[in-house]
Amino acid sequence: MASITSENKGNSKNIINLFPKSADCSYVSCYCEENVFKLCEDVTRRYPGEIQNCSVVFVSNARRKVPLWKQRAGKDEDKLVIWDYHVIFLYHPEPQRCLVYDLDSDLPFPTYVHKYITETFRTDHILKSDYFRFFRVVPAKEFLNDFSSDRRHMKRPDGTWIKPPPSYSPITNSNNPHNLEDFIQMDPAKGPGEVLSLTQFVQRFYKPAT
Fold first, then answer.
1. Catalytic amino acids?
2. Are the CB atoms for 135 and 201 separated by under 8 Å?
3. How far apart are the C-alpha atoms of 204 and 185, rounded to whole Å?
4. Contacts of 123 (CB under 8 A, 6+ apart)
5. Euclidean distance between CA atoms 32 and 38, whole angstroms
6. What is the reported pLDDT for 51?
7. Tens of pLDDT along 157-175?
């Protein structure tokens, strides 16, 4: 069983490295929500007891313009990209331990949450309020049960693909053929999980050792 040593110097206990190599994970560019869904499926299959310690996080805002640094698609030195939304996978087996798995990131796979936040989101203080990032945090098991996408958002009006879709069939459930919008929109009163500001997200998942 692969493991990672905690970054906390006072605690040398190992935790499971759920996905030892990013190259072994299912990945299709511009389908981050489906890439993360496949990560959730993989955990359920290989480490079923750990899915309760995992969360799926949608990052967006009302204007659908969220700056993220250290993204592989970035062209400049800082690897800055402005996405309409992004989706990442969190593994948090203990309060002081949280790993981020982002298949689109230029950072290590995985990266401890403090480093990931610092390098990917930086701070809202350097941004206009229209670009503030918000985070819809959904338990991974709930995401697996409820998420559905017929990929309509990736089609042009004439029916052609904006980006080629994954080779496997669309992820749909019997209740709703497409509910991706419910996850992307950041109204706290609607949709699954809970919506956090960047400050709240840091406070929720970064618990420095005392």
1. 32, 86, 102
2. yes
3. 20
4. 198
5. 10
6. 97
7. 999 999 999 999 999 988 8
